[in-house]
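Quick question, first post here. What does this chain look like in 3D?
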Amino acid sequence: MAFCPYRVCPIGAHSDHQLGKITGLAIDRGIHLAYKPKHNGVIELCSLQFDKRAQWHIHGVPEVRQNDWADYLRGATLELGMRHPLSVGLSGVIQGTLPIGGLSSSAAVTLVYLSALCCVNGIRLTDLEMIEMAVAVENRYVGVSSGKLDQSCELFSRKDHLLYLDTLDDHYELIPTHPAMKPYAIAIFFSGVERTLAGSKFNMRVDECRSAAYALKAFAGMEYGKFGETHLREVPVEVFREYRHRLPENWAKRAEHWYTEFARVEQGAEAWRRGDLDTFGRLSFESGHSSIYNYETGSPELKTLYDIMTHTDGIYGAASQAPVSRDAAWPSSTPPTARASGARWKNSTCAPSPSSGANTSTSSATAPTALSSKENSNEVSYSCGRLCHPALSPDRKLPQATPQGAGQDHPGLARRRHRR
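> Answer (accepted):
Ran it through. Tokens below.
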């Protein structure tokens, strides 16, 4: 059995593909894969969320995507096969513990499948190899111009820490939850609208960011090369401020989101470090607003959820995770189903792993889910998790985690009432 959690990104949305900085937490809901090896090299997979079964041979993967749920796994087979010799296939059943889409489900299913395929073929990979391979699947095979936010959150996160990552050089810090931080909960709200990145305007938004960067370099007399290798990170914010008025309005709005989000991430990391949940929540609210109105993502239903939360008492903040139509807030009370814990990647078939829980629990597809922090000895503690699996480096030291959790694609913060 292999498992990979989903993730939440409180601040840092739509930044990674332009080499920005992000924050993230792993949660206890994710993708499970029960599997066994097939020594004839055949891959046979079925999903409890989809009717169609998927089958191919490790040396006969279709070169182009088939436009179904298994495309990420076909792409993962190709990417791993290009780097390591494969001789063993697998037969398995996949289950996601939340509604289809959202919270990096595509990254989670890719990573959990890569873990299983590595396991049956005796392959060990480093964190960065796993991340780079999973990103390559999305970019080259599925055709989504995504960055590494999702995969990094799922592989680097640890219990009771906020992941603070610079996607330019993969330097990251795990900032512990401050002991003086106010109690809070994370709630996830599902709008009822399901979409995929490939079927959204995601790629167009990425191209608009690149176009803005390319134009700004030209206006400022900076050197520039290939369009696909151009990022806003390479353009100083002073250049953007000087030449913003010369950009087409849409390009200017995308760049505005990126530069302000970069600053919000840095400020948010420092706020978390000192336990300032009010400031962190405000920045999360600002991130959500910019994602909707500058980056222009999200369905009408998601925007309505966000607007409701901005006018609801007791909410610290909320951030949009479009194009997936989910919304998250940090509410004043926790639904009975909400529990928090440290999420872990695990693969119990290949090798034993430390006990794992995860960062979230959720209710039905249309109901809110919450993640609560520890208020007293009778309540669970809030945390994000560290993923572990035997395909990664064997010298990794992993903390023990206790089950609890909640989270999903659109995180926000909420005040919690103290019980008398």
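The CA atoms of residues 290 and 296 lie 8 Å apart.
The longest strand covers residues 21-38.
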